[in-house]
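input
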Amino acid sequence: MVDVEALKKHVWDVLGALYEVHKELGPGLNENVYQEGLSLQLEEQGIEYKKELVFHPIYHNKEMTTTYRLDFLCKQDIIIELKSVEELSGVHRSQLYNYMRLYKPKVGILVNFLPKYAQIETYLYDAEKREVLTREGKPLIKVIGTFVR
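output
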């Protein structure tokens, strides 16, 4: 069972770190600058994380050789995907959704540091139903077999 209060605190801690990085560095820099800044901020706040975590998808209970790289995995249950682009698109969201579907974290955060005000989207993953949900609990996508609709 998910400890909702602990998960909320984890998410708030991570969101605070993201806002602090944007406040300190400002808009318009390259993604790698924000990635390094977030590493430093997470360390300052004592938040457990792994940067550029490589993982292999599982197929029929076998690890595949294909690799994916998460920008950040925080507190073992929050994926963060960083962007520095004009506008977040469906491609960026799909990347996060697929990482969530394959890695099965409880939370996924997509952040765009380029604009004047950071754009941050938070999603939940329901492993039992195999759905990515919005913060309001509405299904965003549903996984049917190996297909996403």
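quick obs: The domain at 4-122 is CATH 3.90.320.10 (Lambda Exonuclease; Chain A).
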